[in-house]
Every structure is written in C-alpha cells, then in structure tokens.
Amino acid sequence: MYDRFNREINYLRISVTDRCNLRCTYCMPPEGVPPLKHDDILSFDEILEVVKLVVPMGLSKIRITGGEPLVRKGIVELVAMIAQVPGIRDLGMTTNAILLDRFAEPLKSAGLHRVNVSVDTTDPQKYASITRGGDINQVFAGIEKAKQVGLRPIKLNCVIEKSHDEPDAQLVKQFGRDNGLQVRFIHMMDMETGYFRPVEGGQGGICESCNRLRLTSDGYIKPCLFSPKAYSVRDMGPAEALALALENKPKRGGQNPQGSFYNIGG
Ligand code: SAM
Ligand code: SF4
Question: Are 164 and 191 a contacting pair, CB within 8 Å?
Fold first, then answer.
C-alpha cells in the first residue's frame, strides 16, 4: 500500500489500552490521566477486524503497544487472535517489561515474535525516579524470561534528553552490550510543540520514509504521531477510516497539541 508521497505503508502500531502501571515523567502526569471508559476502548473483535482488513493490503508488520499493553485484560488472548491472521510477517510488542516475567512465555506460545523493552537507565534509583516508582529488577527479570523463551530479537528503547552520551543512556548501552541486545535511542519528543528527531538505531521519526499508521485504543486510525488527524473505525467503518488515513497522511509531521503518547502508543 502506498500513500500519495509514494511511501510504502506496511506497518500498523496498535495501542490496546491507555492505562499504564508506570508514570514516566515525559509521558504521563504524576497522578495519571482519567482512564477512557470501558465502552470507548476497542474490543478484541474490533481490533481484529482492523487487522484482518489491513494485513492483506500489505500492512504485514504489526506492533502492540499502549499505555502498557500487558495491563490490558486478556492480552495473551488478543495476541493469539492477531497472530492467527494469515500474512503477518512481524508481530512485536513494545512494553515497559514490568509484567514481562509473567507474560513472556504465554505470549510466545500465543504467537508473539518479539518485544521492544523501554528502559532509560539501569540505575535502580534513577529508574524509580524516571518512571515514578518502577522497580528495575522486574524489568531485568522480564528481559531474562523473554530471552529464555525466544522472543527474539529483544530491542531496548531508551529515551534520551539530548544525547546518547548521557550517563543513563551509556548505562543502557552497556547493558545492551553485555546481554546481546540492540539499543535504540529515542529523543524526548513533544507533540505540542512538534519537536521530534529520528530514532537513533531505528526507523522512526524520518518523515520521508515513514511506513506506519496507528490505531489508538479508542479506535482512531492516525496517519501521523505529529498531526491531530484521526479517523474513527467505529463511526466510519475500518475500510473508510483506513482509506482516509492513507489519503491524509501528511508529508511531514507538524504539531499535535491534543496528542499523548500513552493513548497513541508512541
Ligand atoms: N508502555 C509501553 C512502553 O513504555 O514501552 C508502551 C507504550 S510507550 C507510550 C511507547 C514508547 O513511547 C516508549 O518507548 C516510550 O519511551 C516512548 N515515549 C513516551 N513518551 C515519549 C516522549 N515524550 N518522547 C519520546 N518517546 C516517548
Ligand atoms: Fe507507561 Fe510507557 Fe508511558 Fe512509561 S512510556 S508511562 S511505561 S505508557
């Protein structure tokens, strides 16, 4: 599937919840956010309907994200439903890994291929401070379990303020080296002002070669993280929402004043 700027669109990121068990300083306010109503969140069947529509059209790379995807009730069942759709060549999940120790094995059995783990430092105190209370040892245990069960390759997402030379980023780099894991540095972004930079070691943030669409937990297909454009699969049906998102994918990102990472999924 190509957009009007001749970019091949082959990647759908699905946010399955707006809720999270952490409160990262750059993502959520300390008190959290008022959660979406249960009825506003897409059901598993509604998500599956979108996946079944887009995969045969060439969006064969699917990533489950959130909020924290592992806090969505029945996440293993959802992954199993998605994994059974024929034609998916890459099925990944982005997680903070707090619950991964418990979920890695069932997720692997359900058909998940791999995980990206978000971790910005390996220093326990600093991790607790960035995430407002997270325990880094749970992340280490989750990564270890993911390795054991073969959710490969495991990539680490490390948000940096200015540079990958920052001490915390260097700690993550060393941890990656010691454990044979690839590290991607993500510059801290701001949707309100439109500040974004290419992901170092990844593909995100380069408008010219952007290959993705996003499905939010409340059922909007979004053509760009840095645009308020959004098309409701409930109001217009998945096919129409998809067609409009493709047609209106901007040449480059601008600003998205109402946007939030925990709802759109990063
Ligand atoms: N909770 C999961 C996690 O943290 O991996 C998945 C959702 S989270 C919103 C997805 C990614 O967005 C994470 O890698 C996170 O670091 C990143 N993210 C959140 N807020 C960001 C910001 N302001 N700038 C850059 N990346 C951000
Ligand atoms: Fe939660 Fe992920 Fe946002 Fe951190 S970045 S608050 S783990 S959704």
Answer: no
Task: State pLDDT tens for residues 142-191.
Answer: 999 999 999 999 999 999 999 999 999 999 999 999 999 999 999 999 99
With 0-12 / 13-18 / 19 or more C-beta atoms within 10 angstroms meaning exposed / middle / buried, residue 59 is buried
Calculate how far, in angstroms, residue 5's C-alpha sits from the geometric centre of ligand 2.
32
Would you tell me how many other CB atoms lie within 10 Å of the CB of residue 26? Answer: 13
Q: Minimal CA–CA distance to 157: which of 144, 138, 145, 175?
A: 175
Q: In which residue are the tokens 């439109």 written?
A: 194
- 221 pLDDT higher than 90: yes
Q: What are 54's two structure tokens?
A: 């887009």
Domain range for 151: 11-257
Domain-embedded: residue 66: yes
Examine residue 264 and state whether it is found in any structural domain, yes or no: no
Within-domain flag for 265: no
Q: Give the pairing of strands 231-232 and 220-222.
A: antiparallel
- Ligand 2 binding pocket mutation candidate from 23, 93, 115, 191 (most atoms within 8 A of CB): 23
- The domain total for the chain is 1
Quick check: is 53 in a domain? yes
